[in-house]
Structures are given as C-alpha cells and as structure tokens.
## 1
Amino acid sequence: MGITTLEQFAREHESSFSGNCEDLIGLLSAMQLGGKVVHQEVNKAGLMQHILGAVGSQNVQGEEQQKLDVRANDVFIEVIERQGIICGVGSEELDDHVNLTSCKNGEYVLLMDPLDGSSNIDVNVSIGTIFSVFKRKSPIGTDAVLEDFLQPGTEQVLAGYILYGSSTMLVYTVGNGVHGFTYDPGLGEFCLSHQNMKFPANGGKIYSINEGNIGQCDDSVKRFVQYCQEDNKEDGRPLTARYIGSLVADFHRNLIKGGLYIYPGTKKAPNGKLRLMYECNPLALMAEQAGGKALDGYQRILELEPNDLHQRVPFFVGSNQLTDLATSFLSNEITA
Ligand code: P6P
C-alpha cells in the first residue's frame, strides 16, 4: 500500500464533512501540528528535567497539573489560533472557554483534553490528546459563547484523539467511519495505517476498569465484574482485565482488539471521573462510528444535554456485545 497522508485522505474521502473540505483540512492540520510538537516533547520528557513533574498548580478538576499538561494546552491553542478556523476553545486545563480574538470569523469551536492520562508522563506510559469540534451557534464575527460549546455529542462535526504510544497516531471521524494515521517522524507526516476501524465482530474479551474502586461502585457493577471473572468455557469466560490508567490507550486497544472500558459512578463521585465534553463525547462518536456503543450506563452519551463545560458522566464504551452485557446488569436484567 502506498503512502497516503492525512490531508490526501481527507481530500479524497471526506466529502461528507459538514463544512467545506478546506475547513476540515485546516482543522486536521492544526491538530497534526500540535500533535507533532507534543510528540517531540513527550519523547524527550525523560531527558528534559524541566518538563517532568508537576507545575505546583491544580486545574479546575483539582488535579495536579503536570508541566506537559500545561505545555500541551498552550501548544494546541497556539497552532489552532494560527489556523484561524476555530473561534473559541474549551479545555480540561482551563476553568472557562477562551476566545481566540483574532479568529472571530471562525465557524467552529474546539474542546480538548490536551494531555489525557498525564499522571503516566513520569512513568513513561502512553498518554493522549482528545478533541471535539462543533459548528458555532453564535453569529460569525462575534466572541464565542458558552452555548457554542454546550451542544449534545450528536452535533460534533469532528472528533478524534492523538495517542503518544509505541508510535504516535492520530485517529479521527467526521461521521464517515473512523480512520487512523501513524506519524512517521522521518517524513514529518501522519500516514494512513488504519482505514475504517471497527470493533471486531465478536466484540472481544477485554474489560477495563479500575478494580481498586470496586468497593465504591454500585452492586450491579460489582456483579458484572464478578461475572467477567467466572470460569465458563462455553462463553469464553473469564474475560481479560486490562487497565492502563490512560483512557486513550485503553480505548484504542479495546477498539482494535475488542473490549469495554468502564468508569462508573462511585459513592464518592456519583457521576464518575470522566468529562462529557472533551473525553466522553468524542470517544462516544468514534465508538459508534466503529460499530460500538457508549452509554452513561442508561442513556446514549451522544444524546446527553450538557450543562457545564467540565461536567462528569459515568462512561461505558466499547463493543456492542460487551457494552450491552455490562449495562444489562445495571438495568437489573441480570444476564448471569
Ligand atoms: P483512575 C486520566 O486521569 C483519566 O482521566 C483517564 O485517562 C484514565 O482512564 C482515568 O483517568 C484513570 O483514573 O481513577 O483509575 O486513576
């Protein structure tokens, strides 16, 4: 197979993009450029002591900000502003959305987790960037307003992630399938490597949950996890537990091998830990486009009406089979 760059692929395959193709190319090239810069810094983090460790501040989530978190946030905002298509950005690292004052004519807003899984930075485990794009609702030429961001996930025009792992990949959807591109530092290009990604037909046998929290979870979640661990040769149990503690890495593995990621509500955090707008919505759109599902346990993630930039929701995302199995325990239709 010859080399197809992300831009070539988008031009050839994405006539379905809701805006014009140049907009999509612009959005994707900004995210690619940011990804290349973060790729470089993530790969050197071990050598650049000034990058490792926390900045001594906390983000709006009350989470210790790692220096690369803050750096990634600044890098993406800088490259997005220069592209001129995005008029405002919501970020896990910023309390409120920021207006890109030089881009008031931009037709889109972007939400992002600039560096998800950052607690893994200092231990050299994969981390990721997650992004989501909506068409603005406010008039072009004005500042972006909160309503531009607080749209249900079904309205996303572009969603994707960049995974900084054994290789760096950009995976995205505009509603026309999920497509993965692997970064070739020698070429300086993200090249098509995974066209039209789908969960395996059998749904897979992997479940990802932080079992350290199980004592905090609802009994139905405990029953599901116990069910996964039981011996049953007929239906291939026990399942395999895999949990990296980095959502993008767990999601990407489950997409390729088949699996389910769960971050449920707990007694301490009834809405769980993950944020709807820049973690769950983009991954939910990609999961559905790849033939899977994403629920808060009961409702489709993409249909949730947002009320806050940083709101948290319980998250069940993966293949149809495993998502249905897990949620059947929640709705008391015990499958066991
Ligand atoms: P816990 C990282 O902070 C993150 O948002 C996801 O990337 C990851 O899956 C999850 O939180 C890990 O959370 O509570 O299991 O450490």
## 2
Amino acid sequence: MILLSLLLVSLSLAAQVATVGGGRFQKGDDPAWSEYGFDDSSWLEVSFDQAWETLGLERVNGIGWYRIHVVIPSSLKKGVVEAIMLDMGAIDDSDQTWINGHPVGKTGTFPEDPGGYSSEYGKRRYYIVDPRWVRWDQDNVIAVRVYNFGDPGGFYRGAFNLVKPSLKDFAKLSLVADQGGYKAVLASSVKTSGTLDISITDVMTGTPEVSRKQKVTVGAWKEKQLLYPLAPQKRLKLTYTDPRFDEILEAEVCAPYILTPPAPAEPRYNGPLVFGVRPGSPVIFRLAFSGDKPMKYAVEGLPEGVVLDPEKGVLSGSCSQAGDYPLVFTATNDKGSAKACFTLKVGEQIGLTPPMGWNSWNCWALSVSQEKVMASAAAMINRGLADYGYSYINIDDAWEAEERTPDGRIEANEKFPDMKALGDWLHSNGLKFGIYSSPGDFTCGGYPGSLDHERQDAEVWNSWGVDYLKYDWCGYNKIFEAGRDKSEAAFIRPYLKMQQFLREQPRDIFYSLCQYGWGRVWEWGAFIDANSWRTSHDINDSWESLYDNGFERQLGLHPYAGPGHWNDPDMLIVGKVGWSSSLRDSRLTPDEQYTHISLWSLLAANMLIGCDLSQIDDFTFNLLCNNEVNAVNQDTLGHQAHQDVVEDGMQIWSRDLYDGSYAVGIFNLNEVSVPVRLDGALAKIGLKAEKARDLWRQKDIETDSEYLIPPHGVLYVRVQSR
Ligand code: GAL
C-alpha cells in the first residue's frame, strides 16, 4: 500500500512540478474526511486514470471521497511568490477540495446546493493553495469530495500536478460594465504590486486620447476595483505588470460604437432580391426601402392576382400560375427615387432566403402578451426595421390557453384577446405572423402541445393567418423515451406528421424545426420539407453561448443550407433581452455583437431579433440595419459560409455570393486586439484582391494594410478576387 502511494507521486524539479497519480478512495460522505488527521489506511488505493466504474466497485452514483497523500517539497516555495497550484484535471461530475482540512476550491454544484446539482465533468480544475496551509516537506492530505451522476465518476484523466503558479494563474484582470462606465477588477490569491497602464483610444480614428499609469497593490485573496467612465465610440485598454513576472495581464473593452453609415434620405432598396410563394397562396411582401417618408411605390411586371398598395408598398393577393416573375420596384420620395430588380418565384419552394424578423422569446419569454407583440410589430415599421427586410413577427411559447375546448380546439389565453385581428393587422402592413407549438402533449413552458391535435391546430393557425411555425421537440421527449422505437424514423415522425397538415393549408407556413440539433436534423430536415432547423441548444447573451452556437455547432454544416432550408443557430441576442418581464441590455460587448451579426450573416442564419423593438437603441438598430451586411445573409445563392482557417485564436469564415464575390469574416477570438494584414489573411483562403469592401463601414479599403481586430471582434469584408 505504502509503496503504491509513493510511486504515485513523482517530482520533476526542473519544471517545478510534482505529479500525483493516485490516492485513496471511499464511497459515502463524512465531513471528517476532509481533516488531515483522519485515518484512511483502510481505504482503497486507486489511480487517477480509472473512473469509478472501472474500480471493481458497484456502480457509484452519489458521493465518494478521495484522500491523496503527498509530500510537497519546499523547493516549490522558492521563486518570486510563495504559492502552489493544484492542476487537478477533470473530475466527473462536481468536486469540493481541501488541503489539510482547509478548503481550496469547488467546481460544479452538489444536490444540497441552492439550485441543485450541476455537472462540470469536462472542466479542468485549477486551485491556488495558500502557502500557510501547506506542510512543507512532509505528508499533506488533499481531500476531494466528489458527486457523480451516472457512470463513470471521479478522476478519469490520469495524473494531476502540483505546480508553481505564474501571474496568470493567481491573478485575474477583468472589466465589467458599471454605472455607465467600466469597473476594472484585479483579483489575486497572492499579494501583488505593480503598474496598471490605462489607455483610451477613439474607435473610429484609432487616435490615442488617454495614456496614463497607476500603481496598484492587491493583498492575498483580495481584489481591487477601479471605475473608469467611458464615452461612446471609445476603447479602454488596461495592462497590468508586476515587475517580478515576465507575463502581463490585459483587459480591453469598448463602449458602443456605430459603424453603419446613416442611410441616405433618398429611397434605397435593402430587401431580398427574390421571394417564393406557392401557387394560389397569399402573397405577403413589404417592399423594403429606406429613406424619408412618405414614399410612393410602384411595381412593374406583377402577375395577375397580385396587387400593390402604393402608399404602404405592400404586395398582396395570389398567383395561381407557377413561374418566375421578374418585377421592377420603384420607390419615390421628395428627395428622389430608386429602382430594384426582383423576382417573384411562384412555385413549390418557400423561404428562398433566410427569414428575417422578430421572436418574443429572448425578451419576454413566458411573459409575452398581444400588447407586447404589437409594440414590437409597430416598432418594426415605425423605427424602420421593416425597411431593411425584417418581416416576421413570431410569438414563441405562452400564447396557449391552458385547456383546449371540449372538441379539442386550441385557443389563445387571456393575454392574446384576438389572434385573428393580430394576423390581419400584420398582413395589412406586409408583415408575416409566426406561432410556436410542440409535437408533445406539453410545450417547454408547460402549455398544451399539438400531440394528437396536429390537424386541428394547423387549421386554427390557418384561420388566424399564421405564416411561420416553430415546432419545439420539448414535451415530445418523454414520449420518445418511453417508446421502443429509437430509430431515426421515430425521431422524424412527429415532424413529418405536422408537415403534412401544414401543407394541406391554403397558405404558406414556413416550417421551423426546433429540436436542438438532435438526430443530425440537418441531414433530414430538407427532406421533410422543413425550412429551417435549430442546430444547437438555446442561446443566451454570453460569449460562451455565442461561440458555441455560432462557431462550434456550425462546423461542417454548410452543405446542408440552401434556398428553402437553413441551419438555425438560434435567435439574436442583441438589444434589450431578459427572458422575463424585466429586460436588460445584452451582456455581449459591442465587438461581440458585431461578431454575432457578421457570423449570422455569413451563416445564412435565420435573423430573428430577440429584443423588445419598441425600446431599440441606435447602436442595436445600426447593427441590425446595415444593408450590405444583411445582403450577404439574404444572398440569392444561399451558400452558407464555411470555416477556412483556425490559427492563433483567429478564425476565417467565407462564402461565395451570387455576383461572383466573396464575403469573408476574420474573427479574433482572443482576449486582446490582434493586427491582421488583410492580403495575407485573404491569401490563406486563396483570394487575391487589391481592394476589399469593409461591410460594416461600407467603404473600400486597401488590402495591403494592417487592421486591428478587437478582442472577440471581426473584420468583415466583401472581395472580388482576381
Ligand atoms: C425551448 C426553445 C426556446 C423556446 C422555449 C419556449 O425548447 O429552444 O427557443 O422556444 O423552448 O418554452
């Protein structure tokens, strides 16, 4: 036993690292097991490359403890700071760790914690240990209490290390929005004294405006908070140096800055160049022209049965004859006039470009009401978002009455007094109406789903004038799990069923599947006539979520997107969101929001705005209403971008466009700004060009120059390659 324990600890003094390969293990739970003096000699010797399931034990779900005996050499103490760090690798699922009876860290939560258990089985544990708790050159006990849910459990990545931490291990510099400016937080688990370099530059010109230094000292296990006001269009950069270390800490933020140039007062067309409608289905289309109002509209080439409201610029009616109808739109105001060539495609395919619009979930969630929906619908028109092609107004969960009528009919609840009137109002303004349901008996929010009422529900929606259905797996899961058939067909069946009833309605209903990318939906979505499908779990307004849904979960999905069928990385997380009746500004930084919209534009993703449009601010409006950025999203080829390069925390994604040009996003996923020479970056993806069009600034830029891409930000260009 003793021999084994000794073998499991090996030391490499050169690297100042001690490796620990195993310890002692016991099922059960007792607070005394964290103490140094507890006698664990009867515990089972285990090595860390074996998860619980391979220990020859019964299945261990629940709590188990490790006690790891290790001699910590005082050589680790030498150097600039006295501290050691446990780099413990991953633990399945959550842990609480002590050294000689003193707590050092916790990752994940336990069932007894408020909010219950949450797993962090994939996360690497780094715990800084206060040197006062270490028994130098003697036996120490690291006690690890682990909660495991479902096999395997516990340590499973092999050895862990005791290391001498560097500046980045024990100190963290972050910037958080506070009181209209930014609060810098320097937190450290050892005492540090150094200098903070503060610089403020203008985002548009790159001109440095402030550059000063500040002395800072932070005690062990303390933090220092410093507040910096920041005017719009300014970038704040902090650099912390402790002279004892070569490394530095950096943090950077930016106040909201608007890149999109103002739209001209003359009319300008900003909408898609095609629209698909089935023969005989109602045409609902609003001409998307920006410019001073009032405006007069005219359309040449309209097929019989389709009419224009020349005051509102709204097309309605229907066309029974399949075919491509080339139209010319004209809009005129007192400043001038503009034309746009357009094709109305009357045929089987709808959703020829990704849907653009609004959905109630990311703002109001279950607190949605008809009044709130109307407020966003009215703002879509009055604030001018409809002039950029946004046209869907989609109600998510919580519109349903709790009970169906005795004959099984679904009704709206008291928050939605008149769905038909809502649909009529939207259509009369050229906007489209979306609704939500689930193939299960209940929706995610606990409202009645469509199970066994599919036909009835499709008919009710038709009577209200519904043009879009988001169909959310949710409550169907327990039915699927309870069934014996787990085949792909069983997964597809409930979606196929609703599709049939939607197609029987005398109107076009965009069919949006929501089942979080399960069952590789992209491989079969188009075959069951779905127009889009979610590719991942729910998005939220954090960088991690944006990164996962937008970058990670879209890898390799580009072949599956095209006119009529789109990958959906979920709704937009800009503006005032909150998933409740109280809203707040998106927690994404302005640079992250530019990345978000650039990426969704490249991905040909559904552009469903998730904020309250009646409260939209100028920054968010300009982010959503850049006609050149949106034109890539709405490009008629419908080719979704692919990831071409991943290098040094940078990623390049590109797509080809109908006019032979390319849209290219150069994303900086690092925490600090990175200069990029544009021609070099383009060469990496085989493109050669002298000029590139900066899509956010809407101006041509030289490619033989270097551009500074902010942290989590993007340089988004369109190029014509030689
Ligand atoms: C989730 C879905 C969300 C939202 C919610 C409503 O399953 O992914 O987007 O629709 O249900 O309860």
